[in-house]
Amino acid sequence: MSLPATNLPCCPPAEPMPPVPAEPQEANAQLARLAKAMAHPARVAILRLLVQHEGCIVGALVDELPLAQSTVSQHLKQLKAAGLIRGEVDGPRVCYCVEPGAVALFKALVAAL
Amino acid sequence: MSLPATNLPCCPPAEPMPPVPAEPQEANAQLARLAKAMAHPARVAILRLLVQHEGCIVGALVDELPLAQSTVSQHLKQLKAAGLIRGEVDGPRVCYCVEPGAVALFKALVAAL
DNA sequence: ACATCTCATCGTATATCGACGATGAACGCT
DNA sequence: AGCGTTCATCGTCGATATACGATGAGATGT
Predict the structure, then answer these.
(1) What percent of chain B has pLDDT over 70?
(2) B72 CA – C21 C1', rounded, Å
(3) Nearest to A36 among B39, B51, B106 (CB)
(4) In this complex, which residue's CA is closest to the C1' atom of nucleotide D22?
């Protein structure tokens, strides 16, 4: 309902393509790493909210989740560390958006199971 | 190299279809649960080995992984708890095989991101 | 300068994970 | 019965995850 669909000037280049690992062991590690980032309902919800509002959304995420602000921030940190999202400072707020390449890589790795 | 492609009489019915959750919150929980099961390279490797040798393979997994037997057993337990694999006793050995429905559900949930 | 708003980080407490060795249970074989 | 093989479980250890409140950093607005 909220999430005012802010089209802020972020997520500009949008990382063209995901590198697909050739070594099976590397693929396993990559998949495990990305799966670990998705291994919590709150992070799945965050990613879903970010892909739905395709542009960028700000910290309104806290209002959508039944978690404290600091907890949401930690989940965002994990998603960012996994390369699945990007956060850019926009004045007093921070603009979060998905990294389409990383999500595509995740989908590809899972589909290849 | 090993893994003698044992075609044992297990994995008979092979669970016809995955139930796809309608509630978004339920879908998040399901995806998180399955992703958590895949959140470790060893478990990804195990699942991959099981799908490659489509029939069933037994504790030869221990030979393929750089882990102790008890550790592999614990990973198998987690995969089984997540519903991704099935284990049936076959004489002195235990026959593990994938649960295609659960894997398909996982793929569908990830693809729907 | 000051207050405010937004978000990250710190510190802490509890729970779970991941690994191993050791032990136990189930089964087949002689 | 007794033995060996196979796998699960137990107990333990250190590391990590999850949650929260409190505090800090940065920018905006008065």
Answers:
(1) 82
(2) 14
(3) B39
(4) A70
Cα–Cα distance, B111 to A110 (Å, whole number): 8
Q: Is B46 on the interface with A (CB under 8 A)?
A: no
CB pairs under 8 A between A and B: 69
What is the Cα–Cα distance from B78 to B82, expressed in whole angstroms?
6
Instruction: Compute the distance between CA of residue A79 and CA of residue A13 in angstroms, rounded to an integer.
Output: 19
E-state strands within chain A: 85-90, 93-98
CA distance A44 to A24: 26
Q: What is the pTM of this model?
A: 0.88
- Asked if residues A98 and A47 have their Cβ atoms less than 8 Å apart, the reply is yes
For residues A61 and B61, what is the distance between their CA atoms, to the nearest angstrom? 43
pLDDT along chain A (113 residues), means of 10: 46 68 92 98 96 79 93 96 92 90 96 94
